[in-house]
């Protein structure tokens, strides 16, 4: 190690999560063992060998705590009880222990912005203004003879206010009527939230995803939305009290676990905001999950139809700029979180790449190479590693995601036919990415003996069993990729994006004498990248199908990708 590195190393203690490779498990859809058609804790336990075999070292599990299940776990009834839907308290303990025994870290979801209206705190609060839990939530009176305190709408539809049954006040719910926002201005609420974290840290949890935390500082003047009516979230995101609230929480959990990893979900955060949230001086969160990674070609959308549920291709130029900015900005701090897909969005290779049978494998492999060998922390969403595609709804009425029916009606009005509308919805509604895990090519794909709770695809080849047998499968490719990602060069090496045309994506990683060159073709056309002649086929450590190298000219197949490493 040279002196410069030694100095750098002494200055900054490397945190465990900088080397994390995270596997996201959506427990409902992972593996069912009791036949109710919904995945469970025993299902995760059954598949631990599989999870470990991927090479990941951390799992993030979506909420399994007691919930009214109107928002699949994000509408919490108890922050510390395991939902019997997923198993018993003992099952929960067994899962934590089993993961620990395998040397893995565990991240839990922490929905801290709202609870279910069935949460005992809210049930108490409903008893009236004198109840000690009243201030755990946010209340306002009706105003100006209108049925609501102001014109805010909720993210999942309707007004952001609902009137209490036995009184005259309204409670705030920025997401959904049955999910009242909690009041972070109220110290006892903040203390309870910190206690929740301490409880789970005591049980062995290593980190938390702070769900929708950017809304916890609500403007109590309740200003009207300037558009006449509009999302309450617009006026209440990224409030100035968030640093105080989170740093207080962090101080109070410090004794329970110094090394706890906090990753905040901030869907609208650009690079600047991400920096603010992750700046150690501000003591808020370690990393941010933003949905701003995926800029789409807005000019290809039809202005007459709402944009949110309209599909458009990824804007590769803008995507590269976003990636470059995040890589450069967060380079020193181990890089950003890297992900293509999660439970709130459709599966990306299918959405932004090619789902045609001839390109499907290359697309999945290339997209993984492109993103995950950059600097940062990969989050692989269950099923991604076998190239699962989205599920397809026929009837908009069966899609729970908000805004679907409005979109359908608006699109119909301007003459879109049913198939066209569903084509869009099946690439934009978050539910299409929540299909059950395809373990094998059988009637219920090895997920359950019962009736699966969600739609699914039964496919030969795109299931774990078939891919285990095929050395060239996406699954085996992911394993090799993860192995590579674990090497010091890809963990710690410097990053430099190379100038290429928009449909190509190339970068270098360097560390001391080691160097890697990563080249990807994000298009359906073959293409060529000129690379230095010193790179030969002997340096290729990973590639997908159909590429070739001729004296410094790297021919990439449609959705081709090749990774070169020089280690001397
Ligand atoms: C987050 C979750 C999402 C949930 C929402 C409300 O965005 O990821 O699934 O619906 O918060 O809790």
From TrEMBL:
<dbReference type="InterPro" id="IPR013780">
    <property type="entry name" value="Glyco_hydro_b"/>
</dbReference>
<comment type="similarity">
    <text>Belongs to the glycosyl hydrolase 13 family.</text>
</comment>
<dbReference type="InterPro" id="IPR017853">
    <property type="entry name" value="GH"/>
</dbReference>
<dbReference type="Pfam" id="PF23915">
    <property type="entry name" value="SusG_C"/>
</dbReference>
<dbReference type="InterPro" id="IPR056300">
    <property type="entry name" value="SusG-like_C"/>
</dbReference>
<protein>
    <submittedName>
        <fullName>Alpha-glucosidase</fullName>
    </submittedName>
</protein>
<dbReference type="InterPro" id="IPR045857">
    <property type="entry name" value="O16G_dom_2"/>
</dbReference>
<keyword id="KW-0326">Glycosidase</keyword>
<dbReference type="InterPro" id="IPR006047">
    <property type="entry name" value="GH13_cat_dom"/>
</dbReference>
<keyword id="KW-0378">Hydrolase</keyword>
<dbReference type="Pfam" id="PF00128">
    <property type="entry name" value="Alpha-amylase"/>
</dbReference>
<feature type="region of interest" description="Disordered">
    <location>
        <begin position="224"/>
        <end position="243"/>
    </location>
</feature>
<feature type="domain" description="Glycosyl hydrolase family 13 catalytic">
    <location>
        <begin position="24"/>
        <end position="434"/>
    </location>
</feature>
């Amino acid at each position: 190690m040279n002196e410069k590195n030694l100095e750098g190393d002494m200055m900054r203690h490397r945190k465990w999560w900088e080397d994390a490779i995270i596997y996201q498990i959506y427990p409902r859809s992972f593996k069912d063992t009791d036949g109710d058609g919904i995945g469970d804790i025993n299902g995760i336990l059954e598949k631990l060998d599989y999870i470990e075999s991927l090479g990941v070292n951390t799992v993030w599990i979506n909420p399994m705590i007691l919930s009214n299940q109107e928002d699949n776990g994000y509408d919490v009834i108890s922050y510390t009880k395991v939902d019997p839907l997923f198993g018993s308290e003992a099952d929960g303990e067994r899962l934590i222990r089993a993961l620990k025994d395998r040397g893995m870290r565990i991240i839990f979801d922490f929905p801290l912005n709202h609870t279910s209206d069935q949460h005992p705190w809210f049930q108490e609060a409903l008893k009236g203004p004198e109840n000690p839990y009243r201030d755990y939530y946010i209340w306002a009176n009706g105003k100006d003879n209108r049925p609501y305190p102001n014109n805010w709408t909720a993210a999942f539809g309707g007004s952001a206010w609902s009137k209490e049954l036995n009184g005259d006040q309204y409670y705030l719910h920025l997401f959904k009527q049955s999910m009242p926002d909690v009041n972070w201005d109220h110290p006892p609420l903040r203390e309870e939230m910190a206690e929740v974290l301490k409880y789970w840290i005591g049980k062995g949890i290593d980190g938390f995803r702070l769900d929708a935390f950017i809304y916890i500082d609500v403007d109590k003047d309740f200003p009207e939305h300037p558009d006449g009516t509009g999302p309450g979230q617009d006026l209440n995101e990224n409030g100035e009290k968030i640093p105080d609230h989170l740093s207080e929480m962090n101080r109070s959990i410090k004794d329970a676990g110094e090394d706890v990893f906090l990753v905040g979900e901030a869907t609208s955060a650009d690079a600047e905001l991400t920096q603010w949230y992750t700046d150690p001086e501000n003591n808020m969160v370690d990393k941010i999950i933003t949905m701003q990674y995926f800029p789409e070609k807005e000019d290809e959308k039809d202005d007459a139809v709402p944009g949110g549920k309209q599909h458009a291709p990824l804007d590769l130029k803008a995507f590269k700029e976003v990636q470059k900015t995040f890589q450069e900005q967060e380079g020193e701090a181990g890089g950003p979180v890297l992900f293509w897909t999660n439970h709130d969005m459709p599966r990306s290779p299918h959405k932004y790449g090619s789902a045609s049978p001839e390109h499907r494998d290359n697309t999945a492999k290339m997209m993984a190479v492109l993103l995950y060998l950059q600097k940062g922390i990969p989050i692989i969403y269950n099923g991604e590693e076998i190239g699962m595609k989205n599920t397809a709804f026929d009837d908009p009425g069966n899609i729970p995601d908000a805004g679907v029916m409005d979109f359908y009606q608006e699109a119909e009005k301007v003459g879109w036919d049913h198939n066209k509308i569903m084509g869009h919805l099946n690439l934009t509604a978050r539910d299409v990415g929540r299909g059950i895990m395809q373990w094998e090519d059988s009637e219920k794909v090895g997920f359950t003996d019962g009736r699966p709770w969600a739609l699914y695809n039964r496919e030969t080849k795109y299931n774990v069993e078939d891919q285990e047998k095929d050395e060239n499968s996406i699954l085996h490719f992911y394993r090799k990729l993860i192995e590579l990602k674990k090497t010091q060069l890809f963990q710690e090496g410097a990053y430099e994006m190379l100038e290429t045309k928009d449909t190509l994506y190339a970068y270098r990683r360097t560390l001391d004498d080691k160097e890697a060159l990563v080249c990807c073709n994000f298009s359906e056309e073959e293409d060529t990248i000129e690379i230095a002649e010193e790179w030969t086929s002997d340096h290729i450590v990973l590639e997908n199908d159909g590429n070739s190298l001729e004296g410094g000219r790297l021919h990439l197949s449609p959705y081709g990708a090749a990774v070169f490493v020089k280690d001397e």
